[in-house]
Structures are given as structure tokens and as C-alpha cells.
Amino acid sequence: MAAVASEQFSVFEQKLDGVSRDAFVQRLLTLDDHGYANRGQLYRAAAEALGLKGGVDREMAAHFFDCYADACGLSDDTSSTLDALRQRGKLLGMITNGPTVWQQRKIDALGLGGRFDAVLISEAEGVSKPDPRIFARAVERLGVAPHEAMFVGDHPEIDVAGAKAAGLVAIWKRVPYWTLTTDDVFVVDRLSEIIPACCA
Which element (helix H / strand E) includes 45? Predict the structure, then answer.
């Protein structure tokens, strides 16, 4: 998000009424909630906090959707882990919350679409994480029982608690800005750490 916010500052600088780059970027990062914030609400709040007028919030929200997918990148560890799981015959599924068009653009930009056997996007499904129903649909489409499936996510409630409620083996990909409040979950710092657990 920091790179996109900095790019947006350059694009909209003439409409930002003297707001500095640092102030603009920091405000967006504060409101972003680590990627979970609604974009329209985020830019409305940013415009109000920074004293911006003239509908620039709507312009920035539209610009965000145009440029964010291209700024996404897949880590080498993630890519190699997906390859390793596939080589070991594992089925791969993805569950993501958000608007279908927007999430599909990110999936395509990351080159992930063809690497998964099932992709569930909340808007298309009519249900979103942490609702157990979307996890149940994922394992059904993969043709496995819930207890045979591992779900890796970074959000303690939306990902971990949701997966556990649906009967999946939940794995928390540790992040520095959220805290896991349960001690019965496998915790990893790198995605590749799941390979010994799921391929034993």
C-alpha cells in the first residue's frame, strides 16, 4: 500500500492543497487497516482528515483500483511453496473476500488463477470469511473432508477462527500487526513452513 500511496501522491499532488507526501502516505496507511479497509470509506476519511475537497476522494479510489493490482507481487517463498505442494499432488484452493472484479484482477496480476483447483471470491459466493459456509464450499469443490484441509491466513478472526469453525486445520501466517489469541493453531512465519506438516 505504501508504494501505491506514494504513486497516488505524485498523480494527485496538484489537488492535495499543500499536503506533504509523508502526511498523505501516512494517513492512507493508518486508514488502510492492513488491506482490510473499504476503499471508498478509506478515501472519504482521508479527504476529510486532510481537508481535501472537490471529489478528489472518488478520483483517488478509482485510481487505486486501476493501479493496485499491478503493484502486487508474489514472494519467491510463496511461489515455490505452491509449486512444491502441486508436485506432491496436493489440491489447492483459495478463498478471498472482496468484489469479484477487483479480486480477480489481483489474482490475474499475480498469475495465481491457473495454480489453484478452486477459487472462491466472496462477492460471487454471496458469503464471506469468517462465515464457515464459504470454507465448507471450498472443501466441497476440492472433494475433500474439512479435517483433511489446511487453511493458511494472516487474520486471526477472519481467517483462522473462520477456518476452525468450519472444521479445517487452521494455520496462522504470523504478521506483526495482529495477535493470535488461541494457542491451538499452527503458526508459521514463511509459507514454506507448512510443507512438512501437510506433506508428512
Answer: helix 39-50
C-alpha–C-alpha distance, residues 20 and 22, integer Å: 5
Number of domains into which the chain is organized: 2
Residues 101 and 182 reside in one and the same domain: yes
In 10 A of CB 162, how many CB atoms? 24
**Quick one: which of 164, 109, 158, 151 has its CA closest to 129?**
158
Q: Which of 162, 188, 178 is nearest to 33 (CA)?
A: 178
| CA dihedral sign, ordered 119, 121, 122, 128 | positive
50: domain range? 2-71
Closest residue by Cα to residue 141 from 164, 113, 120, 170 = 120
Looking at the fold, whether 143 and 175 belong to one and the same domain comes out as: yes
Cβ atoms < 10 Å from Cβ of 149: 20
The model's pLDDT over 87-135, given as tens digits with 9 standing for 90+, comes to: 999 999 999 998 898 889 889 988 998 999 999 999 999 999 999 999 9
Same domain assignment for residues 53 and 149: no
Q: Flag whether the pTM goes above 0.70.
A: yes
- What DSSP string describes 52-93? --TTHHHHHHHHHHHHHHHH----HHHHHHHHHHHHTT---E
pLDDT of amino acid 53: 83
Contact residues for 119 (Cβ-Cβ < 8 A; gap 6+): 93, 94, 96, 107, 113
Which residues in the chain come in under a pLDDT of 50? none
